[in-house]
Design a protein that fits this description.
Radius of gyration: 19 Å
CATH class of the largest domain: Alpha Beta
Distance between the termini: 45 Å
Number of domains: 2
Strand content: 15-25%
Largest sheet: 5 strands, mixed
CATH topology of the largest domain: Rossmann fold
Strand order of the largest sheet: 8-7-9-10-11
Shape: globular
Helix content: 10-25%
């Protein structure tokens, strides 16, 4: 018998599903297919629970919920993809940052606000636009003062590595939180973002992600948090290609 644990997994509302197939195309694990005009979860063991499909559903029929399910089986998923004639996706599952760091607060996570660095000069051609600490979404307090009256930048943590002009074009003038929907618990991201939006007078939200499918979980988390907070704020999604170019702004 397959091992069952309580974990995050997708839930499909068939009444909302219009059978468009966008979720099936977005699922790198092949865990979703269209059956009789509706999206269906093929097998719990193929679903990693990271939510790449959420941001693609035009009707909001897909959510992520913690419930008892079969564990995600990477080997079985790879074999399933081979049967479909698809290249198996690369997975690097790891514990959430909060667990990896232990239950105690990190001594270097004291909340700080500060002025950004001075403008570039010949002796200092590159300057940081960061004006707060911490930045990791798991560590940052929802009530941190730097969120008050701020534009919020939600960043998938690969973006600053890929996008050379990240500080000047995206970060400048914004409060920022950083995370990885591939490695962390997306449900905890939704809860933290909801708390930030509820407790602070955020003016607008920008989500910066990579073009890879798993990053769509960050967009889905932001949209669910906005809905849960009850606030109608402008939301922009900036997608960066793995070669470092901005491929879209929506």
């Amino acid at each position: 018998m397959a091992t069952r644990v309580v974990r995050n997994i997708i839930c499909i509302d068939e009444e909302k599903c219009n059978g468009c197939g966008e979720c099936a195309s977005a699922c790198a694990e092949g865990a979703i297919r269209i059956v009789e005009g509706k999206a269906k979860l093929v097998s719990e063991q193929y679903c990693d629970g990271l939510g790449a499909c959420l941001g693609e559903c035009p009707t909001g029929a897909i959510t992520i919920e913690p419930r008892e399910a079969e564990v995600f089986d990477q080997a079985a998923t790879a074999e399933h993809l081979r049967r479909l004639g698809r290249e198996p996706a690369s997975h690097a599952h790891a514990p959430a940052h909060a667990e990896a760091h232990g239950s105690g607060a990190c001594p270097h996570a004291a909340v700080m606000s500060f002025a950004p660095a001075e403008e570039a000069t010949e002796s200092a051609p590159q300057t940081s636009r960061l004006r707060q600490w911490p930045v990791q979404l798991t560590l940052v307090p929802a009530s941190a003062p730097f969120f008050q009256g701020a534009d919020l930048l939600i960043t998938a943590d690969c973006v600053p590595y890929a996008y050379a002009d990240y500080h000047r074009q995206l970060l400048e003038g914004k409060a920022v939180v950083v995370g990885c929907p591939k490695l962390d618990d997306v449900h905890s991201y939704i809860e933290k973002l909801t708390a930030i939006l509820t407790e602070s007078d955020i003016r607008r939200v920008t989500v910066a992600i990579m073009e890879v499918p798993c990053c769509r979980g960050m967009v889905a988390a932001a949209k669910q948090a906005l809905a849960a907070s009850g606030k109608d704020l402008p939301l922009e999604v900036v997608t960066v290609g793995i070669r470092g170019q901005v491929s879209s702004r929506t």
